[in-house]
Amino acid sequence: MTQLTPTITRWQGVGLLSTALLGTSVFLLPQLTVKMAADGALLAWGILLLAMLPVALVFAKLGQRYPDAGGPATFVGNAFGERAGAAIGLLFLAVAPIGLPAAMMMTLAFADALVPMSAATKLALGLGLNGLMLALNYRGLQLSGKLQFGLTVVIMAIFALLALTHGDSLRLPQWPGQAMSPVLAATGVAMWAFLGIEAFAHLSAEFQDPKRDFLPAMMWGTVIVGLIYLLGTALVLDLGAAPLAMATLFDQSFGAGGAWVIGGLGVLAGFATMNTYFNSMARLLWSLAGQGYLPQGLAQLNSAAVPARSMWALALLQAGSLLLAYLLEWDFEHLLAPSNGIFVLVYLLAMLAGYRLLSRSFKWVAAFGAVLIMVLGYSIGMQMLYAVVALAVAIGLLWLQPKLKARAAPSGNSV
User: Fold this and answer.
1) Which residues touch 102 (CB under 8 Å, ≥6 apart)?
2) How far apart are alpha carbons 381 and 383 in whole angstroms?
3) What is the DSSP letter of 256?
4) What is the DSSP string of 371-411?
5) What is the count of structural domains for the chain?
6) CATH number of the CATH domain containing 44
7) Residue at 350 is within a domain
8) N or C, which terminus of the chain has less Cβ within 10 Å?
9) Can you give the pLDDT at residue 404?
10) What's the pTM value of the predicted model, to 2 decimals?
11) Dihedral (C-alpha) 311, 199, 95, 139: value to the nearest 10 degrees?
12) Average pLDDT for consecutive 10-residue bins of the chain (415 residues)?
């Protein structure tokens, strides 16, 4: 099967990962954690960043060693067999009809706060953004990488300016005088900021030099995101009750325009998050189709070596989900909750794969990451049901049905 074209540089990769993790939550989660834990929110973000670094390191080492569009499916396949990898790939695809539309609806809700829109107008805008993602990536990922790296720089600049104008109010993390339970609760909520690391692994095969650049891009992106969230939390410690604390802070610094600047960046960051997931899932569709687990038509690339048919299929699926949510009058909460469990299972199995595949010096890192993810899964509770059922269905289909047509893996690695 024809190979994907490697175009991503190290710093474009940093931009793709950073904007995928920041999304609209960079302007909302710091304020939410302050409401939950007051000054302890800084400690919560510090604990979370330290805890997520091992998880990111395992994904980075696996992506560096097995650069492939299959991402976690490739890692699990190499560790536990081809069918196990295909099951994880199909499991990750189960988030497409709910996770991508949920992210779209969150972004549209952010836009609605700036310019109130009817439900029909938001549907039309969502379908338009869906088409824009398809058009933006039809000729490859290089443009997306440049644009998203630029957006990361802009967000960092805004936060730096706010820090300079409010430097006297910044505080260092302090051990809370009260019980640790609010801090731990805030840590659990804040952890959603780092859901997206697994999607980045699907892009490893499109790095110009994955063995040199993928690990630094993953780690730099994770550290930058963690520091931005820490800084944002420090800035809004005394503004937790404001409707949109970041916008209020911007107005205090520059006089006016905070809602438009922060709101506009929130919409762009939300779109960037969706764009990274869109590309990741399209490449997973292409990878699984190339191995015979999905229709062979999805395995074809266009003249720019982009999985165009998989992108079209994903765009149509997302458009259908948006239309269904509009007809049923759902909001993003109906779609977001069940998708969280899928990420937990994908992360957990990737950590177990890392324990089996990586060298001895990294096995303890993978084991620690697995424990962290299991704790998160326990906290999700019944929201794990969709993921468990989706995994069971994927395993059942793979067990009962033969592959459509056996093919070699896209990069020579089995998935």
Assistant:
1) 332, 335, 336, 339
2) 5
3) S
4) HHHHHHHHHHGGGGHHHHHHHHHHHHHHHHS--SS----TT
5) 1
6) 1.20.1740.10
7) no
8) N
9) 43
10) 0.72
11) -10
12) 63 74 74 81 86 89 82 88 86 80 77 81 90 78 63 79 73 59 77 75 73 85 88 78 69 72 78 77 82 81 80 89 83 68 87 93 91 79 85 83 46 38
Q: Would residue 88 count as lying in a domain?
A: no
Residue 293 domain boundaries: 10-70+96-330
Instruction: Compute the distance between CA of residue 333 and CA of residue 267 in angstroms, rounded to an integer.
Output: 18
CB 60 within 8 A of CB 214: yes
Please name the residues in contact with 414: beta carbons below 8 A apart, sequence gap of 6 or more: 74, 77, 78, 82, 85
How is residue 243 written in tokens?
A: 């409707």
| 351 part of a folded domain | no
Q: Which is nearest to 96 in space by CA: 392, 344, 320, 348?
A: 320
387 domain-assigned: no
Tokens 């969502």, located at residue: 126
Task: For residue 45, give Cα distances in angstroms to 39, 260, 296, 323.
Answer: 11, 27, 44, 36
Tokens standing for 91?
Answer: 């499991």
Instruction: Give the span between the Cα atoms of 114 and 164, in whole angstroms.
Output: 26
**CA pair distance 136, 104, nearest whole angstrom:** 16
- Of 85, 391, 365, 17, whose CA–CA distance to 223 is shortest? 17
| Residues paired with residue 8 on neighbouring β-strands, in sequence order | 207
- DSSP 8-state symbol, 207: B
